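Lab meeting prep.
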Amino acid sequence: MGAATPQDNHTARLSDRLDTSVPHPARRYNYWLGGKDHFAVDRHSGDQIAAVYPAIRTLARENRAFLRRAVRHLAAEAGIRQFLDIGTGIPTADNTHEVAQAVAPESRVLYVDNDPMVLVHARALLTSSAGGVTAYLDADLRDPESILGADELRATLDLSRPVGLILAAVAHFLTDADRPHEAVARLVEALPSGSYLALSHVTTDFIPAEIVARMTAEVAAGRMRQDGVPRSRAEFARFFAGLELVEPGIVPVTRWRPEVPESERPSLAEASVYVAVARKP
């Protein structure tokens, strides 16, 4: 039997960090999307949330659809050829590199996540078009300097050229104490003019008050785990300070360059997510 490779040792270390006794947002999201990479504790947590807010699976699907539309826009219309996708989650259909490289095979993508199970699946992501590059970094949005200073970033992206920064359904997992607006601003600051920020974030602005009240009560009673922090439109807009919003601006997820008629889209209450894409001048 041959000696273990560095990749094998890295995977083993990641597996050691995997805690299957506590639900994780990335695995729960995978469950809602119909994936297979989750544990009983994630399914239980997901079902608890779905019992209070039955549309949660619709919300997850609509957020994923926004990611696809936003990346395609950046690659096809904005001419972006480099992407920094933070909080990417477990691989599923229409990953950022697949969407971008379908438009421009030379696109370069760096995925960033801090969940061991996501990182164990890195090999599934590390498949690129012949002319492009796809790489992976173990880091956390809460520590932007660890991302900006990483060897993987310097090897994958040229920060003298525009980059598409993708933050799909990740910023809401940062509490106010984590200073999410400052973390995003630091990343944007490091990118050159002509770069873009695409961001989606859950909100309770469109959810009926009685459902919000029930969610609050379930969390307070310890019957439901709350990982995320829903934010208002004004709080969401702060992420784009100093940037030029791309049409249609800050809108609910189903209204950002939709591909289906309004009659076929979920209601705002069923997909209570704010989204926007903006350019750094």
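Slide two material, second protein:
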Amino acid sequence: MVISLKELTTKELLAPGHRLCAGCGPSIATRMALKAARGPLVVTNATGCVEVSTTIFPYTAWRIPWIHSLFENAAATAAGIEAGFKALGKRKNTKNHIDIIALGGDGGTFDIGIQALSGALERGHDFVYICYDNEAYMNTGIQRSGATPRGASTTTSPAGEIIPGKRGLKKDFIGICVAHQIEYAATASIGFPNDYITKVRKALEVNGPAVIHVLAPCPLGWRADPINTVKLAKLAVQTTVFPIYEVEDGKYKLNIRIKKPIEVEEYLKLQGRFRHIFNPKFRDVLEAIKQDITTNWERILRLCNVNP
């Protein structure tokens, strides 16, 4: 299944004039996702960059029903919306379907909101959860999150003379979601819009919960030129830093096969948050990052039953 341009909504459901940064990856991810809308749509949005910058009182950039959730309860809010529409349908004896999207950043998803998401997935509520991943708490000061990769310098994992940025691996968010035995989960990148929008449509068509994890670079937090946002989103895939795959009924499928990965240095050198790892004293950190990438890519290939 590949969604065609004719199937996309021509309406801009996220209006121009919001106050997100130039080159903002999450704004691109949000706009693309809304292009996959099939009909009536409600969005609940966790606190974060997208929420605060699109709804500065008394203005809103949303042209659809939209609800602000707290950091921790976007999935619970989506579950409540779904339950409310079900009850309304029974009361009025109607079967009108409403699509529901819960939207949150990596901080509000990988960390603060994981309990509400886990509960909603376990109960089987019919909604799509989209995590726009910019790999840190960008809205509150660029603190590290469970999605921050090894070596990245943030305000709570600063690179210095001794500590080389964040220590430890990025959380396997899709693996956590798949463990709930949901019908559909997928990774995506704003650098590959057709793949991403198609996956959002597939997720909306699932009768039950579905999850999309989309990489959405942040120029401010990544200390990158805004002109390179989409380039970075592509390079993350082309270097196998961020594998693109989907899981349908527990079966993994690789969507973008990278036969000759680009050297990861080409990706890292465009980001100020990794500048320190090119210092010879942190050479071991760069090698550890490379090993993380290789290990994870090989793991995904095995899960997808694809030969290296």
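Talking points for slide two:
The mean pLDDT is 95.
The CA atoms of residues 25 and 217 lie 5 Å apart.
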